[in-house]
Amino acid sequence: MPPAYKQLSTHDPEEVSVDPTSSPTSRLTSRLSFTAVARLIAVMVLAYAGVRFLTRAALKLRAPCHSGLQRNLSSLPTHYTLPSGDKIPSVALGVWQASRGEVGAAVTTALQAGYRHIDGAWIYRNEEEVGQAIRESGVSREELWITSKLWNTFHAPEDVESALDDSLKKLDTQYLDLYLMHWPVAFKKDTTEVDKELTANPYPTWQKLEELVEKGKVRNIGVSNFNIARIQNLTANPLKVQPAVNQVELSYWNPQPELLAWAKENGLLLEAYSPLGSNKQVKESLEAPAVQTIAKQLGITPAQVIISWHVQRGTIVLPKSVTPSRVEENYHIFALPEDLFEQLETAATSHPPLRVVNPSKSWGLGYDVFDDYPQ
Ligand SMILES: NC(=O)c1ccc[n+]([C@@H]2O[C@H](COP(=O)([O-])OP(=O)(O)OC[C@H]3O[C@@H](n4cnc5c(N)ncnc54)[C@H](OP(=O)(O)O)[C@@H]3O)[C@@H](O)[C@H]2O)c1
């Protein structure tokens, strides 16, 4: 059955308003006044449309991308879900090189600004002050995400649990949300001499970390500074718990697109350390022309551009600052309009990669721990 269309009116709309009983003069008058009114309405509609168009064009000229930014404000993830089901906040305060005497205030500022994720490590030698600031903040433990890392001297299976216990005691907490193997390098006990066997095969260390999960002292475990080959070397073993994250250097200077693509394909979340280029390269990062252009276009700071870019790439980001205004600034991230995100991605991946953190030489490894420079 064809659809029952409504019969269209054959009347000329102008004639509808004409009273057939009126005189020709009055008909003419009423026709004239109707035409005038119709014209007036048409002029008003056109004028309204014109003003609307001009206002919009003027706003666009003043802040071409702000409207895009506003639309996207809420679309960056605030958390990622780990294989355990735990939700890890996407922005953390990093506390490496936040010295004792200033790290506590930085943590306090961060928690007041809304951070709920602190990225620390036993080797940063500031866990007691971090713990004290957390305790005094009044933020409940359940609301917080605390990460610490197993230092290289404690990879021997018999040392792993006591190393964790020391961090727990210093941080004054019953459990960690995330415990990472800090480096794919094991030192012999109380030395900086490399334990070649445990370095080549980190599985015995990992098994102890798995036990800590079973005991409830740690909710998630992961690795740090592992390249693809080293992750595969570990995960080739019959793991009970897969690494939840890999914390690596990711910045404008060292964006590691291949590692990021591989991690996404394999469901492994990356955490971006030294995201601003660390203290050695921070100025160069913030002054990079691509970063500057986007910051000006969007009316946000260069640090916010970079930190937002990291989250938009799908990683956790761990900016460190002990400067209160920067701690706050770094927490406010914005989804970049797609074209600007791509511009930054292209700029970051179009120069030779440059790492800030690589202790291979100072540890006397005799090889590059990242295999960037095969020897
Ligand atoms: N797993 C690992 O092996 C490893 C290695 C390195 C780092 N990390 C983690 O990643 C975190 C961050 O890395 P990072 O500390 O090397 O470097 P980063 O966060 O890239 O940079 C820190 C530097 O940037 C400055 N800064 C921060 N925010 C700024 C802003 N808005 N404007 C201008 N300058 C700003 C800081 O100065 P102020 O503090 O003076 O404000 C500091 O000098 C560490 O704290 C640590 O938690 C892990």
TrEMBL record:
User: Which residues does the annotated region (Disordered) include?
Assistant: 1-27
| UniProt superkingdom | Eukaryota
**Does this UniProt record's set of keywords contain Nucleus?**
no
Query: Molecular function terms in GO for this entry?
Result: oxidoreductase activity, acting on the CH-OH group of donors, NAD or NADP as acceptor
Record key words, sorted:
Oxidoreductase
Q: List the SUPFAM superfamilies hit by this protein, alphabetically.
A: NAD(P)-linked oxidoreductase
- Pfam families according to UniProt: Aldo_ket_red
Q: Which Gene3D superfamilies match?
A: NADP-dependent oxidoreductase domain
Stated name of the protein? NADP-dependent oxidoreductase domain-containing protein
- Taxonomic placement: Eukaryota, Fungi, Dikarya, Basidiomycota, Agaricomycotina
